[in-house]
Task: structure prediction
Amino acid sequence: MKKQHLIYLIAGIVITILFYIFRVDAYEAVYSVSGYSDQLYNLGLYETIPLITIVVAWAMAGIYYFAINSVRFDRWYHWLIMLALVVLLAPIAGYFVNSRIFDENGLSYVTESLTFELVNMMWAALLFIVASFSMRWWSTNCRHTPIPQ
Result:
């Protein structure tokens, strides 16, 4: 294992941790609506939704680079398929969690929730890219994806 590859992994983990620490600022820098954002904060959804996004992004990168890890699935467009899955799965899961908790508390912010999940798509994509460049070096077949070394 090269020292450089370990630095990439550590950097990816640090970036992800920083994202989680500054999650409220990260989301509200892009989208904030006073009543809706307050409820996200009060109900703990600013903790739950970013965790879902982080887990989906890192898990899908892990699946691509270690579980799939196939010569037949090592092109940039295959990696793009995984990115598309992350960009779809994380916001859908976040929306259902958000919707369920809001329903349990008698709140209705459908439009705001959908817009928030569009922002979450951006964060999911960025986290998947970070995770990809953090762990791709240990893949035997897909390490050259999405950008050759």
In short: The chain has a mean pLDDT of 93. The radius of gyration is 17 Å.
